[in-house]
């Protein structure tokens, strides 16, 4: 074999070897992405880089929960009007702050309600302590001051006995009467907590300045009681539990208990010889 042929053969072998090596590198290179992908896929979840894939489903699952909150809000937001009452009254009052709110055995104040505008009216009481039962809501306090001043001009001297009562106070008062007379009788002259007008801050029991017959039957027929019945509406008050209306109001006659409803409403109720229950077509309260 001559040198030329040997050289050609050597060159051919070299080319084959280089070719083979090149093919192996391509195989490695082709396999690399797949093993790299596999490695990435395996390691990604732990690193969180695959989160873009699961996130949509997580977001989709979380979204309804987030969006369901607004739906629940309206259901819970009416709590002031839908809260279970403090008593067994049939219906909870939606607007307890209304000056003409009807509170009785069928309509109870919400458990959370407390007047926000309670003040001490500048009138005489049968006691001197500055305690809760001296307070009234601002509008009623102004009106009672005018009523007392008007009575004095007519020679009638009045004194307050009891105005605002908190739920806790009313509960204590009612329980005391139950212990004394039994629940059935107590309910004819005292309110179950949550259903007392005193809790509105718009009602007050009054008597003569001597304090005799305070919140007692003997107050009826006195000059003070007669004046109140005749003139209270001029100042926005009514005798809340008038004589002969116990079957409607649920309470016996209380000439000392007056309730502020505003001048126009008071005059209208009295002119029609109605109770609040009749005026608002909400009778009977006693059943």
Automatic annotation (TrEMBL):
Give start-end of the signal peptide.
1-24
Keyword terms, alphabetized: Carboxypeptidase, Hydrolase, Protease, Signal
Q: Does the keyword Signal apply?
A: yes
Which SUPFAM superfamilies does the UniProt record give?
A: Hedgehog/DD-peptidase
Annotated stretches, region: Disordered: 22-89
MF terms from GO for this chain are: carboxypeptidase activity
Look up keyword Ion transport and say if it applies: no
The superkingdom listed in its UniProt entry is Bacteria
**By its UniProt entry, which Pfam families does this protein fall under?**
VanY (PF02557)
The D-alanyl-D-alanine carboxypeptidase-like core domain covers which part of the protein? 134-262
Question: Ranges of Low complexity compositional bias?
Answer: 29-87
Q: Name it.
A: D-alanyl-D-alanine carboxypeptidase family protein
């Amino acid at each position: 074999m001559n040198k030329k042929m040997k050289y050609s053969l050597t060159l051919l072998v070299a080319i084959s070897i280089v070719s083979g090596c090149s093919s192996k590198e391509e195989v490695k290179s082709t396999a690399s992405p797949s093993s790299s992908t596999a490695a990435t896929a395996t390691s990604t979840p732990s690193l969180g880089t695959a989160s873009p894939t699961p996130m949509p489903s997580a977001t989709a699952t979380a979204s309804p929960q987030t969006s369901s909150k607004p739906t629940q809000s309206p259901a819970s937001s009416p709590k002031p009007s839908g809260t279970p009452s403090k008593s067994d009254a049939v219906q909870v009052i939606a607007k307890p702050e209304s000056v003409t709110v009807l509170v009785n055995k069928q309509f109870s104040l919400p458990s959370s309600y407390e007047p926000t505008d309670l003040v001490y009216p500048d009138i005489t009481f049968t006691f001197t302590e500055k305690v809760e039962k001296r307070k009234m809501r601002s509008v009623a306090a102004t009106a009672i001051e005018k009523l007392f001043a008007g009575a004095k001009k007519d020679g009638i001297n009045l004194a307050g006995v009891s105005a605002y009562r908190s739920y806790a106070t009313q509960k204590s008062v009612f329980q005391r009467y139950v212990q004394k007379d039994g629940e059935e009788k107590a309910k004819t002259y005292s309110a179950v907590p949550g259903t007392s007008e005193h809790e509105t801050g718009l009602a007050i029991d009054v008597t003569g300045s001597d304090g005799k017959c305070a919140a007692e039957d003997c107050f009826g027929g006195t000059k003070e009681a007669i004046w109140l019945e005749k003139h209270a509406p001029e100042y926005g008050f009514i005798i809340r539990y008038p004589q002969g209306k116990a079957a409607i109001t649920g309470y016996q006659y209380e000439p000392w208990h007056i309730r502020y409803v505003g001048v126009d409403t008071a005059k209208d109720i009295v002119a029609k010889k109605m109770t609040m229950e009749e005026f608002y077509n909400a009778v009977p309260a006693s059943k």
